[in-house]
Amino acid sequence: MSVHTFDTMGTMVSIRIADTEEGVPRQSIAAINEIEHECARLNETFSLYLKDSEISQIARGELALADSSELMRTEYARALDWREKTDGAFTPHRPDGVIDLSGTIKAVAIDTAAQTLIGSGFRNFSVNVGGDLTTFGNQSSEETGWITGILDPLDRSSLLAALRLTPDFPAVATSGSAERGEHIWLRPETTKAFVQASVIASDIITADVLATAIISGGQATLDQITQNFAVAVMTVAPDGALQANAKFQELVAR
Fold first, then answer.
1. Among residues 50, 13, 53, 54, which one has the least CA distance to residue 34?
2. By residue range, what is the domain housing residue 41?
3. Residue 87: left if φ>0, alpha if ψ -120 to 50, beta else—which one?
4. What is the CATH number of the domain that holds 232?
5. For residue 182, what pLDDT is reported?
6. Quick one: CA dihedral 113, 114, 115, 118, positive or negative?
7. E strand or H helix at 119, and its extent?
8. Which of 78, 156, 173, 244 is a plausible cystine mate for 234, CB 3.0–4.6 Å?
């Protein structure tokens, strides 16, 4: 297995390719270079921490959304669609009205990286960006899928669960305050029901958005998501109480 890591978007990217021969094949070097370039492009476009990014120019009123790039308008439209699907629990707007697409762009980067690897001929890999990941194929020749763990937000040295990601459920995202502090805005009517939410889904964008929405919307949003989406979910309450739906329990590695 070859492992490639690099820093981008304020976090660490880790790509594990299981179906490489000894050494690092030329096509994996080319694919990793392409992925690094695309992550940098997304960061330069969507980071509100970069003064000259396109989204920072929009936030300052120097660039109208209607005059922004096609990429910006496409990703904003995607985020608005998710706002509708989650009944407003997920939103691309900060409370001050500034457009903030950080809730989807990291997942877009993960998905783009996976598509680049598939296009380069790889069939067994994982892409992890800041703890959220998508997988493809098998981690080893002995077992199906990839095994990943979910950390306890109240004790970062402990695992809450080990999961086997499958072809139908290859992506997992976790939202909460354990690593990045309080960065998700709660709905005005929502008390803090969960300190962490993990969602396993058929794609990383769905997993990431829904995990964020559950933290923002609380129990009502959790109930809506488990009813309306084919996902596996586990949440952690402030007192450490766990909730996990049946699909999540099916994916627990035995």
1. 13
2. 2-251
3. left
4. 3.10.520.10
5. 46
6. positive
7. helix 102-119
8. 244
Measured CA to CA, the distance from residue 88 to residue 146 in angstroms comes to 33
- Token code pair at residue 24: 């690092």
Distance CA 160, CA 252 (A): 10
Cα of 91 vs its chain's centroid, Å: 15
Q: What pLDDT sits at residue 143?
A: 78
Q: From CA 218, how far away is CA 194, in angstroms rounded? A: 7
Structure tokens at 128: 């992890």
Q: How many domains does the chain have?
A: 1
Q: Which two tokens stand for residue 244?
A: 């996990």
Cα–Cα nearest to 27, from 140, 121, 124: 121
Residue 234 parent element (H or E): strand 232-236
Q: Which of 115, 108, 122 is nearest to 41 (CA)?
A: 108
Q: What is the mean pLDDT of each run of 10 residues along the chain (254 residues)?
A: 91 88 66 96 97 97 98 98 97 95 96 95 94 94 88 92 96 79 52 91 98 96 97 96 96 88
Which residue's structure tokens are 């695992």? 159
The answer to whether the beta carbons of residues 224 and 216 sit under 8 Å apart is no
Say what the pLDDT of residue 181 is: 46
Answering whether pTM is above 0.85, one says yes
The answer to whether the CB of 121 falls within 8 A of the CB of 20 is no
> What's the pLDDT score for residue 156?
86
Amino acid of residue 172: V
Which phi and psi (to 5°) does residue 14 adopt? -130, 120
Query: Judging by beta carbons within 10 Å of its beta carbon (0-12, 13-18, 19+), is residue 119 exposed, middle or buried?
Result: exposed
